[in-house]
């Protein structure tokens, strides 16, 4: 009977937030959004046995976070992910805590129309509509000859902050199809791109 009760018990996680620079926390059911300078501490207040923390991007495949076997997991801005604690004791089956999903707001950007097309140049606009809760430090257009260009491909750099901008693409070859999209990077160095 003790084993059955043990399996039914839920382990609840406590969350503690450290904020600076007036960042705002947004809670949505089982998700938490915060700015780039916020540190989240997930605490498992009461447990018996050995603890390991896990991280997952899809809530199916879980990876152990090495180096942390204490009751507190400290998380800085990284990528959107889910976290949980795993408690083991002796030969008993592992017990999993509740899962918490952390969401980091990225900049939001739209890609405008392509104009002024010549044999080797073109112009394209973009619009940063949301900064993701942190200062937009770079924005522009990225392009390549294969789908879904990134900031590792050809880019323009067209200022900072939110609002509209125009990028001038150069070095194009006549008769070659190109893929392009606007990008924005906030102070957490996380690009946000929208394909056109």
- CA-based shape: elongated
Task: Write down the domain tally.
Answer: 2
Low-confidence stretches: 1-33, 190-196
CATH superfamily of the largest domain: Immunoglobulins
What is the name of the CATH class of the largest domain? Answer: Mainly Beta
Structural class: mainly beta
Number of helices: 1
In short:
With 196 residues, the protein is mainly beta. It contains one helix and 17 strands.
Features:
196 residues; mainly beta; Immunoglobulin-like; 2 domains; 1 helix; disordered N terminus; disordered C terminus
Describe, in plain words, how this protein is organized in 3D.
The protein is elongated. With 196 residues, the chain is mainly beta. Strand 2 and strand 3 (31-34) form a beta hairpin. Mean pLDDT is 75; it is low at 1-33 and 190-196. The protein starts with a helix and ends with a strand. The chain folds into two domains: 2-104, Immunoglobulins (Immunoglobulin-like), CATH 2.60.40; 108-195, Immunoglobulin-like (Sandwich), CATH 2.60.40.10. Helices cover 4% and strands 48% of the residues. The strands form four sheets. Strands 2, 3, 5, 6, 8, 9 and 10 form a seven-stranded mixed beta sheet that branches. It has a four-stranded antiparallel beta sheet with strand order 14-13-16-17, with no helix packed on it.
